[in-house]
Write a structure and sequence with these properties.
Elements (H helix, E strand, L loop, with lengths): L1 E7 L2 E9 L3 E5 L10 H7 L4 E5 L16 H14 L5 E6 L3 H10 L4 E7 L14 H4 L1 H7 L1 H8 L3 H11 L9 H11 L4 H5 L1 H4 L1 H11 L8 E6 L6 H9 L3 E6 L6 H4 L1 H14 L7
Parallel strand pairs: 3-4, 3-5, 5-6, 6-7, 7-8
Antiparallel strand pairs: 1-2, 2-4
Helix pairs in contact: 2-3, 3-11, 7-8
Length: 283
């Protein structure tokens, strides 16, 4: 695995690359970083080349005070892909990395080979049975009030993050303690909690931009999975509402942390999906 940095769209990003083959760009969620994809890289690095950044506001990337809308983060990713000379690519996302991954698929339809959204909340949609995730999950509204969240969480990052990694999982031991400690350490970096919470603070803009983009069906092949103990069918239902081609479903005995809880299952599904949407030319 190689660590690198790139100046893109006015922000300096830290990212890692690993493996060889067709390119997979990985967008993480909160409170994670590129680390959440290490297990996927380990399993599939012999077949794919992974590019996994710390998104703006997270870990070892810069932490600006603005630019957390999906379209802006998607523009960050396009600049990163250009720096890596990646013309065609698959997009893989988890959690709040999903709205930006959707924007990227729309903005780079001619370059994106596929879009996989795992345990992603979809804001701004309107289809029969749709429920805005802000209704179901208490922390979304709390985190949108970034000042109060910082007041309550700063100095207690480890305890707070452990709550999410254990209580949002079907198997509370799925995310190792060493990983929880690593995420807590990064969350204590100056500016990291403040900046990363912008993903929540910008949820209204996420909803507005997703609604705008989804006015036309996404033609990039899409896959969406949700854990039975977490988002359930919300992910595949939303994917079917916005994309012309959508597959996936609900993963049994699984919570929010799919890559750690059902590693074999999700790696098999991703490999099958990426193989079916393989590039026809050089990537």
């Amino acid at each position: 695995m190689k660590h690198d940095r790139a100046e893109t769209n006015g922000v300096r990003l830290h990212y890692v690359t690993a493996g060889s083959g067709p390119i997979v760009l990985c967008l993480h969620g909160w409170p994670e970083t590129h680390r959440e994809y290490l297990v996927i890289m380990e399993r599939l690095g012999h077949k794919y080349r992974f590019i996994a950044p710390d998104l703006r506001g997270f870990a070892d990337s810069e932490k600006p005070f603005s630019g957390y809308e999906p379209k802006t983060i998607a523009a960050d990713m396009l600049g990163l892909l250009d720096a890596e000379k990646a013309e065609r690519f698959h997009v893989l996302s988890h959690d709040l990395g999903g709205p930006s991954a959707v924007a990227l698929a729309y903005m780079a339809t001619g370059r994106a080979l596929s879009l996989a959204t795992i345990e992603t909340p979809f804001f701004g949609l309107d289809y029969p049975g749709y429920v805005d995730p802000r209704v179901s999950y208490w922390h979304l509204g709390m985190h949108m009030n970034m000042d109060i969240t910082r007041f309550l969480v700063e100095g207690r990052e480890e305890e707070y993050l452990r709550h999410f990694f254990r209580d949002f999982a079907y198997d509370p031991t799925a995310v190792p303690e060493s990983e929880i400690q690593a995420y807590a350490t990064q969350m204590r970096q100056p500016g990291n909690l403040r900046a990363s919470l912008n993903l929540y603070g910008f949820i209204p803009q996420m909803a507005e931009q997703t609604k705008e983009l989804a006015a036309e069906k996404l033609t990039v092949p899409m896959m969406a999975w949700g854990g039975r103990s977490s988002f359930g069918s919300h992910c595949i239902d939303s994917a079917k509402a916005i994309a012309t081609t959508a597959q996936g479903g609900v993963i049994e005995r699984c919570g929010h942390w799919v890559f750690q809880e059902r590693t074999d299952f999700i790696c098999d599904e991703l490999d099958r999906f990426w193989t079916a949407n393989a590039p026809t030319g050089a990537g």
